[in-house]
């Protein structure tokens, strides 16, 4: 359904991305923000799914500054080690510049209405949160984002709708971190946190160890409702 494209970086050079369009050829834009496994089949599948729901979806290669073209899985110890190595080397500030560049690019794609949301998972969940504090994205939906509790000071910059999907048994976001997120964000007029009781990290990753179809469908439905409302 989709195609690999190039996106121009703000500081020179460029990076790859996977673009998928709806059958109609037009719709609001959504930037799909990767996990720590790169623009792999899971991310491409999510991008295709959003296209099938009427969105012009684009998943950028945010690890390009470290190693372009990463497409690994969560199935082997070696791949997990590689994924964590990339995560440790990842420059969040540069990553946010690349997300803004992706938003800008997507707004110029033929068929995009100009409204652009962001959706991300794991590392991408954090970057989705930051996309609502540092970019001009129109809405965001973050799944089990890591380290958000350490960046709550940026919440004052959020002026557009953001939903965050929190796995209550998240092995990478402990109860203390979850409590800080609720304390810092529950009263924010533009932010809604949804708790998924009994679910672990990556409950929406199809084929993953902790995949929960019921919870994933609920989270995905909430994401679609947000985008259909905020990006109209």
UniProtKB/TrEMBL annotation:
SUPFAM superfamilies: alpha/beta-Hydrolases (SSF53474). Residues 15-230 form the Dienelactone hydrolase domain. Gene3D superfamilies: alpha/beta hydrolase (3.40.50.1820). It comes from the Bacteria. One of its GO terms (molecular function) is hydrolase activity. Pfam families: DLH. This is Carboxymethylenebutenolidase. The lineage of its organism: Bacteria, Pseudomonadati, Pseudomonadota, Alphaproteobacteria, Minwuiales.
